[in-house]
Design goal:
Structural class: alpha/beta
Distance between the termini: 56 Å
Helix content: 40-55%
Number of strands: 17
Number of helices: 29
Length: 719
């Protein structure tokens, strides 16, 4: 499990400012060298946005144009902020502040509270959900566990949108919120929660932002002090900014325009927390002179994965869709995405576990595999299936790596061994740093081979094994490093929350997977009602669900499997349908808006049985074979002449548009067209790889070629 690039954990420090620019593509270089005025970077998934902005900051610092202490880089998670600090340190810009909005605001609030308010600052609420439960009890409103979580989420949304308890019902109604209880009851709980905090001298994380905004609005002297400290701002994931965070950013910035924002409207998936892409999409309106750079070169995923990701967004609607980025893969071709249908959820989980075990046996590390689902409740069946298959796994969202008890004990043990040096009996006759670490951690439970099965013992071993891998990486990049040097590095990583990878298959919700990537990704439970989720009622809510699927697809580097089950339990009625977002993308489905879908004919009905080879009758499982509706080694009835004419036409199209040929149609899609020789639009729409957008753009040309005519109308030589 890694964040958005595949690079060394310990990069060598660049020798000069110009060296910082080495290896950047033209668009990334433009971002890095545009250091004046407002800059808006529209960056698609996997296009190296973090690389671009960290190199921008480092280039400014190394060239003397930016003072490290004058730069504030803001992102949305502690993990992302820690990764950014690590990269900046490696690029020779270690003095730059990289923080979350909450972290930066809390630091400022703690510093200025005595001057602005006086006395001790209120304590932070550690367990907000417990206080919400008490507020509900005082209001004589009983909440179950799920309602408690959802009501807490509603309170958080109200606060980041700057909505007071009395105004909550009207604001929630206007925003189309899917509320867990009566709106008046939630408003009552919200008001009681706020009163409990005041009575006990406590504040929550949303208060940190609200109070900082209040102080900066009321105290111009304090605002000016902060503005004199920070003169250059960089905001990552700008599509996820809430109105409250945007207001804080405006107060930090003042009347200046030294601001660089980075985002992708197609990855806006947190609107339920108050996030909105409007600030990103309106950036040029606010700053007409802004430099806008688009990053569309995808370095993460294969052409096959990128093609599917583009296909998901091709059917999108709304303002965010109007600004979507068409990604272009920079990687070598890989396997086609696999679409798999199962009779029930346990069968789906077992099938996924078998496929994961096969990948691990083929050499894919367990830590480079993820199973992603829409809601956390879906994880249990996959935990059981992986445990039964003997595959280690980890749940994303558990406690932070450096907060685990076994990790904290290991760090103390390593520091003690570093101080003892040659006097430590564990280090007798052990010279190399990784061997020293393995010897020291053997006293804490590390062994050369992992323990059998899963559970707490295996989890603890995985934590220690991750520290061993850090030592191995550190020794390779720092020849001659000592145990004391490694202890310092680990302490810096702990402070930055820059956790190492734990070797186990990751189980995570699609929301929790944002910003991460793996070699192999399994998107599971893709049925209507789950994707999109049942409570997505409005067009805007459905489009956010589509973007969530897009985020899931773009987490995969090489292997991608999309699956669904026709019923919940074995023997159940198979009444579920595959996600509507897969229409026109999965084999045997028609694109939305095609003639078949519009007429509601027999082809509109979702396939319920397995896909069978039309030559030998064998069940097909690979996407490429399902696209052709036959086994790879079964004889083809393809019209070779038609296939060659289609290839020539594709070559002309790709050159005219400056795109690789596969972005027009893949070879498999051309083969499928040549075998089917469609005579009308509905038949062409049935072929996998011909989505709605491509049907509209290329359909007339392809049908003309199939009819023996020249693209664009007139009869060809073979007419």
């Amino acid at each position: 499990m890694t964040a958005a690039t595949h690079s060394s954990s310990f990069p060598a420090v660049a020798e000069s400012a110009d060296a910082v620019l080495l290896g950047l593509d033209p668009e990334q270089r433009e971002v890095a060298t545009t250091l004046r005025g407002p800059v808006c970077v529209l960056a698609g998934a996997g296009t190296g946005k973090t690389r671009a902005i960290t190199h921008r900051i480092a280039y400014g610092v190394r060239s003397g144009l930016l003072m490290p202490a004058s730069v504030l880089a803001v992102t949305f998670t502690n993990r992302a902020a820690g990764e950014m600090r690590g990269r900046l340190r490696g690029l020779g810009a270690g003095g730059v502040q990289a923080r979350t909005f909450h972290s930066a605001a809390l630091r400022q609030l703690q510093y200025f509270w005595p001057k602005a308010v006086g006395g001790d600052m209120p304590r932070l609420v550690e367990r907000k959900i417990q206080l919400v439960a008490e507020a509900g009890s005082r209001c004589r409103i009983r909440l179950d566990r799920n309602e408690l979580r959802d009501v807490t989420g509603e309170i958080e949304w109200a606060k980041v949108t700057q909505t007071v308890p009395a105004d909550y019902p009207a604001a929630a109604l206007k925003s189309g919120r899917e509320v867990p209880r009566d709106m008046a009851e939630i408003a009552q709980i919200y008001g009681t929660y706020e009163q409990l905090k005041r009575d006990r001298g406590m504040i929550d994380f949303e208060d940190v932002l609200l109070l900082t905004v209040g102080i900066l609005q009321d105290r111009q002297d304090i605002a000016q002090t902060i503005r004199s400290q920070y003169q250059h701002f960089v905001v990552d994931e700008y599509q996820d900014v809430s109105p409250l965070q945007q207001r804080l950013l405006e107060l930090w910035l003042g009347d200046r325009d030294s601001l660089c924002v980075v985002g992708d409207a197609s990855q806006t998936i947190y609107s339920f927390t108050g996030a909105t892409p409007d600030h990103l999409l309106n950036f040029r309106t606010r700053f007409p002179q802004a430099t806008v750079v688009k990053l569309v070169r995808d370095y993460r995923s294969t052409p096959q994965v990128v093609h599917l990701a583009n296909g998901v967004l091709n059917q999108a609607r709304g303002r965010a869709a109007e600004h979507r980025l068409e990604l272009i893969s920079q990687r070598e071709p890989g396997p086609d995405p696999v679409f798999a249908e199962y009779p029930d959820e346990p069968a789906e989980a077992e099938g996924v576990a078998r496929r994961i075990r096969d990948l691990i046996e083929a050499g894919v590390p367990a830590g480079e595999i993820a199973v992603l689902y829409r809601i956390n409740a879906q994880s249990e069946v996959y935990e059981q299936a992986l445990a039964d298959a003997g595959v280690p796994y980890q749940l994303r969202g558990a406690e932070r790596f450096f907060e685990r008890p076994e990790v904290q004990r290991a760090l103390v043990t390593l520091r003690g061994a570093a101080h003892s040096g040659a006097n430590d009996p564990l280090l007798e006759d052990v010279v190399e740093l990784p061997s020293q670490v393995r010897a020291v951690l053997s006293s804490s439970g590390w062994t050369p081979e992992p323990p059998a099965g899963s559970g707490a013992v295996r989890d603890q071993w995985e934590s220690l094994a991750a520290l061993v891998r850090v030592a191995e990486d550190f020794a390779r990049s720092h020849p001659g490093a000592t145990l004391a040097d490694l202890s310092v590095e680990l302490e810096e990583r702990r402070a930055a929350q820059h956790a190492p990878t734990v070797q186990g298959v990751t189980l995570a919700s699609l929301h929790a997977a944002k910003g991460l990537e793996w070699d192999a990704v399994f998107l599971v439970g893709l049925t209507d009602g789950m994707m999109p989720i049942t409570y997505a009622k409005t067009d805007e809510q459905v489009e956010e669900e589509r973007r969530l699927l897009y985020v899931g697809v773009t987490r995969a580097r090489l292997h991608l499997t999309l699956s669904w089950a026709l019923s919940r339990a074995p023997g159940g009625r198979g009444s579920r349908r595959p996600s509507r977002f897969l229409n026109g993308l999965r084999p045997g489905s028609a694109a939305p808006g095609s003639r078949i879908a519009a007429e509601g004919g027999s082809r509109k009905r979702t396939r319920r049985g397995p896909v069978l080879c039309r030559v030998c009758g064998k069940t097909l499982t690979e996407a490429g074979e399902m696209k052709l509706m036959r086994c790879e080694d079964c004889p083809s009835d393809m019209d070779e002449g038609l296939y060659e004419r289609l290839r020539e036409w594709r070559s002309t199209q790709s050159k005219a548009q400056g795109l690789p040929g596969y972005c027009v149609f893949t070879d498999k899609t051309l083969m499928a067209i040549a075998e089917a020789a469609p005579s009308e639009e509905g038949e062409l729409a049935m072929i996998s790889g011909v989505g709605g957008r491509k049907l509209q753009r290329y359909g007339a040309d392809v049908l003309a070629i199939c009819a023996g005519q020249e693209p664009g109308g007139g009869p060809g030589d073979d007419a």
